[in-house]
Amino acid sequence: MKTCLVVDDSSVIRKVARRILEGMNFEIIEAEDGQQALDACKTSLPDAVLLDWNMPVMDGYDFLKALRRMPGGDRPKVVFCTTENDVVHIARALSAGANEYIMKPFDKDIVEAKFQEVGLI
Q1: Mean pLDDT, consecutive 10-residue segments, the chain of 121 residues?
Q2: Domain count of the fold of the chain
Q3: What three-state secondary structure class fits 97?
Q4: What's 24's DSSP letter?
């Protein structure tokens, strides 16, 4: 079974994402901020990361840069999931190594389509 690390400071978003992704046969790991996510990745790299941008302690952008520098950190498919929708944020995310970008609010169809685009399903 593939694993997905869901990184968001909102427990509601994590719960919604968990429900959608478990329905897509993913095992879910949760983190409330980028530092928790980085610690989880040091233990075991997930197949996918659904990543929020704005979080306390370490934001999604800094987490992504740190992940991509880790041994094997180029493997997880990273899908940013955020309210930041301007071109500058999207370009920064993609240049830092994001594979895709989803706008909040999201639903099952959007998540499935983006995960399919990056080859996760």
Answers
A1: 97 97 98 98 97 95 97 97 85 93 93 95 87
A2: 1
A3: coil
A4: T
Rounded distance between C-alpha atoms, residue 111 and residue 49, angstroms: 12
Give the integer Cα–Cα distance in Å for 97 and 75: 10
Tell me the residue type at 120.
L
d(CA 55, CA 71): 24
**Rounded-to-integer distance, Cα 107 and Cα 96, Å:** 25
pTM score above 0.90? yes
Q: Which pLDDT value is given to residue 86?
A: 83
Q: What is the domain range of residue 84?
A: 2-117
CATH of the domain at 22: 3.40.50.2300
Q: Measure Cα distances from 6 to 66, 87, 88, 97, 112 in Å.
A: 16, 23, 23, 17, 15
d(CA 67, CA 15): 23
Determine whether 2 is exposed, middle or buried from the number of CB atoms within 10 Å of its CB (0-12, 13-18, 19+).
middle
